[in-house]
């Protein structure tokens, strides 16, 4: 079986869908760093590489070696920063957007292989989902991994359909490359291993194993030698990855986690990914049930036509179910949505044939596109004024009041404090990005001695006023109240007030 798109039409549709994706990404563009924090850490790691300081958390005191995130994205960002002469938020976002275009290209080519004549309709639905355009301006690994993983899936499917040796190897190499971007990419590697063994591609399996071990073993040895630090397994086994006091989960907790995540993904995350106008509630549940029926119909309908998409979809979803509930959301589900969409539209086609609805797929895709464009319009109405104000000089346009004041406090630190001072703050990576000062976060624990030790190790303390967390109120402020004479307020922002305290020696 060859692609459902001939060479000429393939080029045309690639251009059209790429242009549509770029347009949506620009409409929803945010020039500022995302407030999640991981994006800033990636950029700081890239700057560490660019400046010859190794793969290190240079925003922390002592600049310890970084052992959590794979180095793929920071290496790519360091090349961008090399041309820019330093951290360039805009350059980083452009790089991610280019990966987004690549992801859409590979998605269309893959759909042409597995969906035939319905590929264009399914692709229109995927491109219209705002989650992809929004993620394209966030400096995170989801979009780059989406590009690499869809590329791997496309080449593996093509290799099987055309008996193309080089396509098999291209898919194998890209699957391993995905683990350099995100640890959860191991699900893709395992899925490819299963597929290669089922298809008796033993040489490809040997090549994959050799390449994976050549990358994985030195990385693990390096991390072990770098010293102690939380691993992804530690996060997986924690009741709350942010509060160590809660301890680790047991078998019962793990079962509850899987059940909770399953319900949230089926009835919230996936329905709201396909139809962004949905909110949590009864309608999302109804859409979730419909999608579940379509997924089941499409998956079992393709069971006799085994492709690598099946094991990857199953293993990838199982990984999502195992993560702590606080991480359950659109971001981690994003790389799987195009794969789920394959089976959804196969299900639509099969049910449409049973009901003698010849245009079931085009009608379903048109409905998805129309509703998602409504969501895009709503989001663009917020995004465009924000980046317009940003272009006019408001560097914090679009941030919540709490985040605006926090960044203003970091800006004050940049202009008022010596560069060798150390800051204790809830979001230390942002303090470093804005001020250049080394910073670290206070521990989230009721052990006041540990929190006091963190305070004593700093020169300045930032007391934030975020609406999304009360960690300062619960963990930091009670310790500061124990010895109020040991600190003095040196800066206070406007409301909501963020305080900067100097630790007196």
Main attributes?
five-stranded mixed β-sheet, single chain, 21 helices, mainly alpha, 505 residues, 5 strands
What does this structure look like?
With 505 residues, this protein is mainly α. Among the domains are: 141-227, no CATH class; 229-354, no CATH class; 401-503. The protein is built from 21 helices and five strands. The protein has helices at 7-27, 38-50, 72-84, 89-114, 119-128, 130-135, 142-162, 165-178, 186-198, 202-226, 232-237, 251-274, 282-301, 309-322, 330-333, 337-354, 360-391, 401-416, 428-435, 448-456, 471-482, and strands spanning 422-424, 438-440, 460-463, 487-492, 499-503. Strands 2-1-3-5-4 form a five-stranded mixed sheet, with helices on both faces. Helix 2 crosses helix 3 (72-84) and helix 9 runs antiparallel to helix 14 (309-322). The model has no long low-confidence stretch (mean pLDDT 93).
Write the layout of secondary structure elements.
Blueprint: H1 7-27, H2 38-50, H3 72-84, H4 89-114, H5 119-128, H6 130-135, H7 142-162, H8 165-178, H9 186-198, H10 202-226, H11 232-237, H12 251-274, H13 282-301, H14 309-322, H15 330-333, H16 337-354, H17 360-391, H18 401-416, E1 422-424, H19 428-435, E2 438-440, H20 448-456, E3 460-463, H21 471-482, E4 487-492, E5 499-503
Parallel strand pairs: 1-2, 1-3
Antiparallel strand pairs: 3-5, 4-5
